[in-house]
Amino acid sequence: MIGEGWTNGIGGLIRLSSSFLPPQYRFPIGITGQAIAAIAYPFIMFLPTKVAGSWFPDTQRGIATTIGVMSNPLGVLLANVISPQMVRAPQHVVYLNIFTFVPAAAAMLLATVAVKRSEPKIPPTFSASKPQMEFLPGLKACMMSKQYLILFIVMGGGIGMFNCLYTIMQELLCPSGYSNSFVGLCAALMIIGGIVGAAGSGIFVDRTKMYEETMKVSMGLAVVFGLIFMQLTLHTNFAPLLALTCVLFGIFGLATYPVGLELSAECTFPVSEATSTGLIVLSGQVQSVLYVLIMKQFARPLQPERMAHQVCTLDVTDKMNQPKDNTQAVMVFSLLAALLVLVLVILFKPVYRRIEAEKENRARIDKEKEARMNDQKITLPRETVTQPLNKAENV
User: Fold this and answer.
1) How far lies 2's CA from each of 5, 111, 319, in Å?
2) CATH annotation of 2-117+124-357
3) Bridge partners of residue 324, in order along the sequence
4) What are the residue ranges spanned by the domains of the chain?
5) pLDDT tens digits for range 94-139
6) Angle at 9 between CA 3 and CA 15, to 5 degrees
7) DSSP state, 18?
């Protein structure tokens, strides 16, 4: 966490300093700062399950993971909302750089001063007290687990599809006449719905431990609403339904995120959570690129009769933002999404190894406690039986 805070803080400082340099140096220096700050991104994505497993009891791990992983999309949402309001001219960029540097510097100082240890003195659970595998043995254990490999592909595909839709949303909507402001609204609704869904799923699995059921239902509904959204983008005048499906897709799509990361830790225990979840996130980033490339590969020139509705180009001379017909791309995307859900529902049968280890430990402790109580039980001496006196003796 200290490394994450410092790389983000130093990157923000370099990005801020670029605003005061001559114009020819601003862009390369600013990009350098952005690249240094981006080094913190893997730590943000990989650490939540590790922190949750090390610092929180089993009844709070899901919501702890949710809070950690949802900080990233929440930050993206705030940046997308605030940046256009703050930067209305090139000279206003410095205000945005100041605005982003202040919280980065505060987090850097807080991590340096407040973070004193990686784990608590007293582990909150039995699993947190157990030694974990080193990276290479843990990596081998992950790759040898059939259930983890299914999760690696399906969960990574879910992350990739979510990122893909978020990335190319403008290219999907502008050929049908939906403005950039509406695109921004859809993206914001998707993130807001996702935060609500992830919080709900985290609380639910903490109380019920129904990881598998929650994952399958959420993933299935996310694909349904995601495909409805993509089909609606091919038609005009469906703005209210598009907004609604964005909310629902966000709710169920991001609901799978913390649950899937917790499942990866359950399937591979005692592999370190940083290893198992890190591979899932890596799979998601790689598949994000693949799905974006697939969508662009199957996009076709827009039909002449639809050109009257498109709002992609700035003017008739704009050759950079040519509208595309995404019908074939949507069909291919839909097929891949449906295939992922079928693999998850039919083949994914996880074993909760971490939960089972904790149950066995609790059962062992209960038996030892019962045995000690039996050993310490005091057996009272038998009372002397007195015989009643005869009437004759009483006289």
Assistant:
1) 5, 5, 46
2) 1.20.1250.20
3) 301
4) 2-117+124-357
5) 888 888 889 888 888 988 888 777 778 888 887 777 878 888 998 9
6) 135
7) G
